[in-house]
């Protein structure tokens, strides 16, 4: 599997350019959850994950909604910074930005993973302490 950074750099998108777009932007978890709540938007993210840097026409292929609907879904994903778009001449390329998802996992979702891990550790200690 290809590294997203190398794919972005092949398309002429530098990590400094990506960082300048996302820096200073404070996202609330709700906007990311809202963007991820729709199955079509998750499908678009999956498509970008499999092949980053697609145009709107490429993303519309094999989707059962109109081009206008895909465009609106991309706008929601862009507002949550899950997708970053760059214009190259007449083309507009869309790139997956996994940062907001990683922030959710590290923050809000992570606290539940920690509790579950602690519960499993306590259960293991209790089972090991039982005689016989």
TrEMBL record:
SUPFAM superfamilies according to UniProt: Winged helix' DNA-binding domain
HTH arsR-type domain segment(s): 21-116
Taxonomy, superkingdom: Bacteria
Gene3D superfamilies documented for this protein: Winged helix-like DNA-binding domain superfamily/Winged helix DNA-binding domain
Pfam families to which the protein is assigned, alphabetical: HTH_20
Gene Ontology molecular function, alphabetical: DNA-binding transcription factor activity
PANTHER family: TRANSCRIPTIONAL REGULATORY PROTEIN
Protein name: HTH arsR-type domain-containing protein
Originating organism: Longimycelium tulufanense
């Amino acid at each position: 599997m290809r590294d997203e950074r190398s794919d972005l750099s092949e398309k002429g998108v530098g990590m400094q350019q990506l960082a300048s777009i996302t820096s200073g932007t404070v996202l609330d978890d709700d906007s990311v959850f809202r963007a991820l709540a729709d199955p079509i938007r998750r499908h678009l993210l999956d498509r970008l994950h499999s092949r980053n840097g697609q145009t709107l026409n490429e993303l519309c292929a094999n989707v059962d909604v109109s081009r206008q609907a895909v465009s609106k879904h991309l706008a929601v994903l862009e507002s949550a910074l899950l997708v970053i778009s760059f214009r190259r001449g007449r083309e507009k390329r869309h790139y997956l930005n996994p940062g907001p998802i990683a922030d959710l996992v590290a923050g809000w979702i992570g606290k539940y993973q920690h509790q579950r891990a602690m519960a499993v550790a306590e259960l293991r200690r209790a089972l090991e302490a039982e005689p016989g």
